[in-house]
Amino acid sequence: MRKKTEKKKPEKKHPKKGYQPGSGGRPGRYYVRLNGSRKYIGKDGDPDIDERYFEAVLQWEKNGRKPLPTHIKTGIPVEELATKYLVWAKSAGYSGGYVEHIRIAMQFLIDQCGHLSTAEFTRHTLKSLQETLETEGAHGTPYCRESVNRYIRFIINAFTEGEERGWGVDENLPGQLAKVRPLRIGRTTAPEYQEVDPVDIDVVKATLPFMSETVAAMTMVHLLCSMRSQDVINLRVCDIEMNDPKYPGVWFYEPHTHKTKKLGKRLLKVIPPEAQEILRSFVEAKRDQPTAYVFSPRDVLKKHRDGLRENRKTPLQPSQIARAKRAKKRRPKRVPGEKYRVDSYRTAVQRSQERARKAGVDIPHWFPHQLRHRSATETRDRFGMKAARDMAGHSNSKITERYAKQKIERMVKVAREQERIFS
Description:
This protein is mainly alpha-helical. It folds into 3 domains: 17-62, no CATH class; 78-177; 201-309 and 338-417, hpI Integrase, Chain A, CATH 1.10.443.10. The protein is 48% helix and 6% strand. The protein is built from 16 helices and 6 strands. It has helices at 49-62, 78-90, 96-113, 123-135, 145-164, 173-177, 201-207, 213-224, 229-233, 273-285, 297-310, 318-329, 342-358, 369-383, 385-392, 401-417; strands spanning 17-20, 29-34, 37-43, 240-241, 251-253, 269-271. The strands form 2 sheets. Strands 1-2-3 form a 3-stranded antiparallel beta sheet, covered by helices on one side. Strand 1 and strand 2 form a beta hairpin. Helix 2 (78-90) crosses helix 5, helix 8 (213-224) packs antiparallel against helix 10 (273-285) and helix 15 crosses helix 16.
């Protein structure tokens, strides 16, 4: 008797990858169809598409070729995460310069990946950002290796803080981002950081006439007191001690915020007599506002407008007065801040150099941080290394109270015997 032919079981075929073209400038997406439903596995240019495809098919096989359980993606836009982290950093007690670097990193993150969700952000995305900073920078100029590593570290910190505070960041993402290795010397095209050279005093003096009264005062105080830029812009009347009976003739300035405050350290600066003469008119103008900043962009704008009004040759017309009244009621899109930022202070100095060059004065490019280097160099050559360290605000965690007293006395000696530069 003839046996019935056994029917062969159809071979199980693996689902194939599909592609959905993009539209409206959006990139296309790859997917795999499982039980009639699409599971998206990546966009154009994503290097993990094949890996995600095999992972999805494997999970589907393990689940008996049944529909996979759906998971709701929890995440927020990267733009929202960056904004929250910047707000948190401003309230965390960091110095103004440190917060400014965080702001640059977060703005770069928003510009590049603000449209993504935190659920779509991967370590490969972060690696791409690192390569962009290395080759193009945030504004078309490549950053040095140290700056690239710093900004990438800030971005990782934003996702780490977001995970700890429940801002919609997956708990495994910070660990994945930490796998992106920093750039190393000799293994990157990013340039190395160049040491800052001291600026020549004659160059500073040649630039001063092209500065506003406020910026010129900031520049001179910056140089005379060996301050950092952030210490100059944070100067307030209430932070200055003018009548210390132990050290007559010397003012002391303790910034309310500074670079090492987050490490639990205090910073004390001395203001020599020449700097006192420069500051006196600014301090007197803010006597009734002790917590107001001594150097304010609002004051500069007000003096500029008052000068235009005084030098006006034709009388104001009624229509002009009416327009001025209406303008006061409107809220301008951009108003000067109550204090300078480190970058706005630097920009003001650079613009004064541009005005000088247009006027025919040959001035080489320089920036405010070089003032501190010039002051520290002069102090070291005349008073020694310890005095230069004290004036610059460099500290050692092992300093005792006895050494702290010697430090103040050295600083006072420098302030009293410092040679006059601007008068």
